[in-house]
Amino acid sequence: MNNTIYIEYLNKKYPVNISKPKDPDFADIETAIFVECKEAWFAQERDLSDLWKLLELLPELIAEKKAERKKDIINLRITREEKSKIEALAKMKWYKNISSYIRERALQK
Q1: What 3-state class would DSSP assign to 83?
Q2: Which run of H or E residues covers position 88?
């Protein structure tokens, strides 16, 4: 079982992945599921009966995480050629934008 459903928050849809439990301690529990929503920084094993409550809670978790999001700005001067190379590398590695690419490279995530 591996399903993706979408919850809506501020007119944007966010994926919620539901699958079999990843933790071996939950593998024998017939009603156990693993729920993951990256935007809410949520990944846990839960009982299937908790799913509806959890789906109601996830928009609140997303709102909290968005409030904690990046607010500071760093300006960087580069040449046109450097920008083209950075954009190409970011695109090649499937980054949404060059900011994400530069941030992850600089912080070694």
Answers
A1: helix
A2: helix 80-92
67 token code pair = 């409030």
pTM of the model: 0.58
pLDDT in tens, the chain (109 residues): 689 999 988 889 999 999 988 887 877 788 899 999 998 989 999 899 999 999 999 999 988 888 776 778 889 999 999 999 999 998 888 887 888 889 888 888 5
Q: Residue 107 and residue 5: Cα distance in Å, rounded?
A: 32
Q: CB neighbours of 42 closer than 8 A, spacing ≥ 6?
A: 35, 36, 58, 61
Identify which of 33, 39, 5 has the alpha carbon closest to the alpha carbon of residue 19: 33
